[in-house]
Amino acid sequence: MKYAQITGWGKCLPPANINNDEISTIVETNDEWITTRTGIKNRRVSHVSTAELATLAAKRALACAGIEGKELDLVLLATCTPSTMVANTASLVQKNLGAVGAAACDTNAACSGFLYALQLATAQIRAGLIKKAVVIAAERMTWYVNWAKRDSAVLFGDGAGAVVLEASDTPSGLLASKIGCDSEDRNILHIANYGTDQDKYIATGPSDLLFEGREIFKRAVKGMSEACDDVLSQANLQLDDINVLVPHQANLRIIQAIQQRLQIADDKVMVNIDQYGNTSAATIAIALCEAVEKGLITPNANIMSAAFGAGLTWAASYIKWGPRVTPLAECLEELPSCEKTGLELIAPAVAACQLVNTQD
User: Fold this and answer.
1) What integer pLDDT is reported at residue 198 of this predicted model?
2) Could you say which DSSP state residue 277 is in?
3) Domain limits at 139?
4) Active site (annotated) includes residue 248
5) pLDDT of residue 225
6) Across-strand partners of 133?
7) Confidence (pLDDT) at 278
8) Looking at 20, 88, 278, 289, which residue is catalytic?
9) Which residues form the Beta-ketoacyl-[acyl-carrier-protein] synthase III N-terminal domain (predicted)?
């Protein structure tokens, strides 16, 4: 049986930043309020499209793996903020990568999207249907934010991460996984005024991003912890066998609660929510890259990852890292330069949101 080894990894974070003090000039809040409740200090705001973020993250992952786009059999993009719905955004990324003839598909499981996509691509390699794939998670969550509402304004950021999977005879890559969805309670986290259920001839205004924080917290901790237990059982592993926990970066309190339930030490947990906020599907992909960069992921490491998102989707995965933690090559491309600050980039959206809020 073939395995789907991770041979390349890359991330793309837009340069413009908004810190908590700057957010407090938009909505009534402050750094202490945000930090104590979420753990977030900064978030990135993109001046380019989701497709551009995804493309650069993928190019960096391909260079890391030492392969070219034309060698790919599959381009799989996890996103809930696609650049275009039809055609799918993955097809544009495929074109940008020169992955001629490769299958290209978007998948949307919100914050659980990267782990969903990783399982889908891994299954195709292990079934012998394909040999090489790039799995990307890219989001422009600030596009959805209603800047007149504190609860959503402080949480989200933009970014992308990617991994290359290659068929291997060595047991590595995604070795155990559990994904699911608690759809009965899907309304506690959703965007109500977006999609084809809406009358497209009536202006809807800013995105109506709705969530019930306390209920989400309880379900996220329970769902991710139980999924991790299931994955450990599948893989016949004990908690002591896990070298690194790479959780979805939605809220520091949730990360700490899962860490406590799984009894994993601080030095084994990858946390970067303070710098980027919640980038939805992209959080785990970005965190994986940074865990390698920081030396948290070492050759042949056992990695546990878990996520919880709108839907309510959930996922947990056991990943066996390969023997290499250094890139084979480097992609020297960068995003187009950005002449605006984070606040300047969102200024038109802020004005529109505040106008609608005033009228209401």
Assistant:
1) 79
2) -
3) 3-195+205-359
4) yes
5) 87
6) 74, 165
7) 96
8) 278
9) 106-182
Q: Which of 12, 64, 80, 111 is catalytic?
A: 111
Point out the catalytic residue in the list 17, 64, 228, 248: 248
The answer to whether residue 278 is catalytic is yes
Residue 143: the pLDDT is: 93
Strand stretches in the chain, DSSP E:
3-12, 17-19, 42-44, 74-78, 103-107, 132-140, 158-168, 173-181, 189-191, 209-211, 244-247, 302-309, 313-320
Joined tokens for residue 126 = 């292990």
pLDDT at position 163 is: 98
Residue 31 resides in a domain: yes
Query: How much is the pLDDT for 241?
Result: 94
> Is 183 part of any domain?
yes
263-309 tens-digit pLDDT: 899 999 999 999 999 999 999 999 999 999 999 999 999 999 999 98
Q: How much helix, strand and coil, in percent to the nearest 5, is found in the chain?
A: 40, 25, 35
Tokens describing residue 131: 């040999």
Q: What is the tally of structural domains in the chain?
A: 1
Percent of the chain residues topping a pLDDT of 70 = 98
Closest CA to 59 of 9, 23, 20: 9
Active site includes 181?
A: no
d(CA 244, CA 270): 7
Question: In angstroms, rounded to a whole number, what is the distance separating the alpha carbons of residues 353 and 269?
Answer: 37
| Beta-carbon contacts of residue 101 (< 8 Å; ≥ 6 apart) | none
**pLDDT tens digits for 46-62?**
999 999 999 999 999 99
> For position 358, what pLDDT does the model report?
66
**Buried/exposed code over 211-247 (b: 16+ C-beta within 10 A; e: otherwise):** eeeeebbebbbbbbbbbbeebbeebebeeeebbbbbb
Q: Is 200 within a domain? A: no
Does 249 reside within a domain? yes
3-state secondary structure of 139: strand
Low pLDDT (below 70) residues in the chain: 188-190, 357-360
Beta bridge partners of 11: 161
Measured distance CA(342)–CA(318) in Å, rounded: 36
How far apart are alpha carbons 208 and 358 in whole angstroms?
Answer: 15
